[in-house]
Every structure is written in structure tokens, then in C-alpha cells.
Amino acid sequence: MRADYKQLSKGLGWFSLALGAAELLAPRKITQALDAQGHETLVKAFGAREIAAGLAILGAPAHAERVGSRVAGDALDLGALALAARNSPRNPWVWGAIGFVVGATIADVLVARGLKQVPDAEETAGAELALPRAGSGRATSAEPAHTARGVAPVVG
């Protein structure tokens, strides 16, 4: 069974939108759970970043770079959570959040790598619509199909 990386990418896009909305709408609850009161503005900024990433991915789900931008965001999240863990090392919510972000990072990396290995359907479709170069072995508008393949026409 082969993974459909474009569908997985769309799932990550929707996930980003949902996570971003939660961070924008409930930053106080998030900071309280992580013992990080006073950092609500940072949580909101992370939420805006997640929404931007989600919209970018949903706009072009086959582009690995857009999913890769989530990896950079995950690094920021892990940095902030490392500080929260240093300040509150026994808080299970902090460690749960770290585990969650590590899992999301793994998914992001795997999907981005998978997208790089699968040719973009829009690119391959565009390549077939383009006229081939002369001498490429394929017929051009000025060259009949039978001569492009080196086959002489049948004269009846």
C-alpha cells in the first residue's frame, strides 16, 4: 500500500488550522496548563503562524516546501516548550505537549520527504501539454508523427 502524500499534506493543513485557532482563541488556558502565564502573546503568534502554514498547505498540498515550513514551526514550538520544561519540570502537560510536537514533527518530515519523491501532478500534466523540441523523437506540429519515430508512411 502506497501513502498518498498529497492527502496526508491536506490533513496536516487542516490540523494546522485547528491548532492555530485553538492557540488564537484560548491562549490563557494553554499558558495556564503549561505554567507559562504571561506568554499569551507568544501563544497567539504561534497560532497565527499555524493558520498561515495551514492555509499555505491547503493552497498547494503537493508542495513539499509548504509542509517543510511546519517543521520550522515545530522547532520554535519545541524551543518554547523546552523553556517551559525547564521552569516546570514536573508538569505532565508540558511533557505531553513536547511528545505531541515531536510526533507532529515526525509526520511533517515524512510527508515533506514523500512529497519530494512523488512528481507533482500539475507539473507532469503541464509537461505533456507542452510541444516537444525538434529532434526529441516525438512529433512536433511541423513534423508528422510517422517521421518522428523513424517509420516511413505506408503508401497504398
TrEMBL record:
It comes from the Bacteria. The chain crosses the membrane at residues 93-111. Residues 132-156 are annotated as: Disordered. Keywords: Membrane, Transmembrane, Transmembrane helix. This is DUF4267 domain-containing protein. It comes from Sphingomonas xinjiangensis.
